[in-house]
């Protein structure tokens, strides 16, 4: 699956500190691990993760932004004539050689039969919902092309900015894009003229930074219209492709095989992990958590005091073993029943909430195991647990989704975690990485922080 990110500050993660328990970021062990994690990801100051950028987009480039719609632009317009791209197609511009999508593959084989070719603007439009996981609304979407064979690689979806921030927003998006490639397709989705206005501003920023833009398409309702090309001509509008379009059908099949589906909106994606929906279900979930906490306390008392490890953390080692068992039980239940039983989900939520090192250990297991479909398993867990009781589990799902290329779900997870605990450092760090379009493979660096030891053995008498 192509990598999807959702960079762009929206106010989350900057609230005041909330009450914290032993697993909160105010705990010294959590603060220490956070500093280590930040160093792994190259953050220079672990306690100040670009607060200015969290509060708003970076400042404008000093260059004046007065380019027209391609006319006279310094980079030859949207087309590089040396690429031998055709002038115009009847419905949008064709992609020379075709673009290539690699569904559910992190490092795809270019000769894999799973490769899906996209040859025109209609194909790109059909691919957008499948690359980000839902049908965008009031958004800018960027598909970035990489490699000599025009692989559609990272994708970004961002909320349309306020009118006063359009230029800063556009410069920010262009900068993020340049981290991954120099060729892109741009889309705006809006029920008003704002989408086209923002798209035009983003196009200018891309051209100014030397990014080759294959197409810039404004979607309003069921109509997709093109911005004028460098010669001043505008192609006729086309209808937004239906689900039966060959590209959409192929991607739907690939996503279904991988346990994913395209949802109607970002709100629907958020609702899928928002926990119980009514008061009665919320109370029942609260009771399950209380029972799980009681089981956790009883398990702690049952740990023999003679058990020791080289690091001297008998209970932590027992917790890790128990948490691994819970995680694997969740996977087995999901494979068998297509859901995780609520009591089991509550036990896992309590286990990862109780000890930071246990949470990090499970995250490392999830990152290492690329065969298991962790996103649907952990999403099923969150459906039966109140969000306030599952901050660690929600962040864990966010990391799993991020590593799998699901930037939209990852962004929602970090937002939800920070809504219920604004000072939760791992969620803030992950959110900052997402905003700055850090590649998912960078998360593999988290494995160096897993200090787990082999299973504990009784100490010699």
TrEMBL record:
Comp. bias regions, Low complexity? 15-26
- Name of the featured protein: DUF4192 domain-containing protein
Q: Which superkingdom heads the taxonomic lineage of this protein's source?
A: Bacteria
Q: Which organism is it from?
A: Nakamurella aerolata
What residue spans carry the Basic and acidic residues bias annotation?
29-38
The segment annotated Disordered runs over 1-75
Question: Where does this protein have compositionally biased stretches of type Acidic residues?
Answer: 48-68
Q: Which InterPro entries match?
A: DUF4192 (IPR025447)
């Amino acid at each position: 699956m192509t990598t999807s990110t959702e960079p762009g500050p929206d106010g989350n993660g900057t609230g005041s500190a909330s009450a914290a328990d032993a697993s909160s970021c105010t705990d010294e062990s959590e603060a220490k691990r956070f500093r280590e994690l930040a160093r792994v990801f190259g953050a220079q100051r672990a306690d100040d993760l670009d607060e200015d950028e969290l509060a708003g987009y970076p400042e404008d480039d000093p260059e004046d932004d007065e380019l027209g719609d391609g006319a006279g632009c310094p980079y030859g317009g949207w087309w590089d004539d040396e690429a031998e791209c055709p002038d115009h197609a009847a419905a949008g511009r064709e992609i020379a050689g075709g673009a290539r999508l690699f569904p559910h593959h992190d490092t795809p084989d270019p000769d894999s039969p799973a490769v899906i070719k996209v040859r025109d603007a209609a194909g790109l439009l059909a691919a957008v919902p499948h690359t980000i996981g839902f049908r965008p609304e009031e958004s800018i979407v960027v598909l970035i092309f990489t490699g000599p064979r025009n692989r559609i690689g990272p994708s970004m979806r961002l909320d349309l900015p306020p009118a006063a921030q359009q230029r800063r927003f556009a410069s920010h998006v262009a900068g993020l894009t340049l981290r991954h490639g120099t060729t892109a397709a741009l889309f705006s989705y809006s029920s008003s003229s704002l989408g086209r206005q923002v798209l035009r501003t983003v196009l200018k920023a891309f051209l100014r930074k030397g990014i080759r833009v294959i197409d810039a398409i404004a979607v309003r309702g069921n109509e997709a219209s093109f911005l004028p090309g460098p010669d001043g001509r505008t192609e006729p509008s086309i209808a937004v492709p239906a689900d039966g379009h060959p590209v959409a059908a192929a991607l739907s099949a690939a996503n279904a095989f991988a346990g994913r589906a395209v949802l109607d909106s970002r709100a629907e994606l958020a609702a899928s992990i928002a926990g119980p929906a009514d008061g009665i279900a919320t109370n029942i979930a609260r009771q399950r958590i209380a029972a799980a906490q009681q089981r956790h306390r009883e398990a702690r008392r049952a740990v023999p005091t003679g058990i020791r490890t080289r690091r001297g953390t008998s209970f932590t080692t027992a917790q890790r073993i128990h948490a691994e068992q819970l995680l694997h039980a969740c996977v087995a239940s999901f494979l068998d029943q297509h859901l995780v039983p609520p009591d089991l989900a509550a036990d896992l939520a309590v286990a990862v909430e109780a000890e930071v090192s246990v949470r990090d250990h499970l995250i490392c297991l999830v990152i290492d195991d690329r065969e298991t479909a962790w996103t649907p398993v952990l999403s099923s867990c969150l459906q039966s647990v109140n969000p306030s009781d599952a901050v660690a589990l929600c962040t864990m799902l966010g990391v799993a989704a991020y590593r799998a290329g699901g930037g939209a779900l990852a962004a929602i997870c970090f937002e939800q975690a920070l809504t219920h605990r604004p000072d939760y450092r791992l969620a803030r760090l992950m959110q900052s990485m997402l905003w700055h379009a850090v590649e998912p493979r960078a998360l593999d660096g988290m494995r160096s922080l897993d200090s787990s030891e082999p299973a504990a053995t009784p100490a010699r008498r």
